[in-house]
């Protein structure tokens, strides 16, 4: 299913199911991401889904939050070993919930599920990267217990 959600912000969210993504979910993932970011990236999401569908069971996850048969959110991440001299840890690359129904613990449920996968893989830490001025995302991850870590992101424009 693609396009706007038919779920309203006033409905209960106790019945959210978290499950692995399947190919038909990619269009809805791209639509949710576009609603949240204002940028259409369907090829990116298709590529990410294909990469995360490859064998590395227990080390990669692309999970879907589904409510009443409709995809309402997603998270993806993987275990990375010893990057930048750090211990093996779980990395969350993307977490988005349909903007029309945020603040209903769907993001928390997705985050908790991927953390369980990371724990089962034997890692003891989870990391992500956030734009320093994205207060909404920063507040969400802080509410999940994440805090500024020991690494500093650095970048250079190449144009």
TrEMBL record:
Coiled coil: none
Keywords: Acyltransferase, Transferase
Record-annotated N-acetyltransferase domain positions: 16-159
Pfam families: Acetyltransf_1
Top-level taxon of origin: Bacteria
Listed CDD domains: NAT_SF (cd04301)
InterPro entries the record matches: Acyl_CoA_acyltransferase (IPR016181), Bact_Acetyltransf (IPR050832), GNAT_dom (IPR000182)
Molecular functions per Gene Ontology: acyltransferase activity, transferring groups other than amino-acyl groups
KW Ligase (keyword) present: no
EC identifiers of the protein: 2.3.1.-
Transmembrane segments: none
Designated name of the protein: GNAT family N-acetyltransferase
Taxonomic source organism: Rhodopseudomonas palustris (strain ATCC BAA-98 / CGA009)
Organism phylogeny: Bacteria, Pseudomonadati, Pseudomonadota, Alphaproteobacteria, Hyphomicrobiales
Gene this protein is translated from: badL
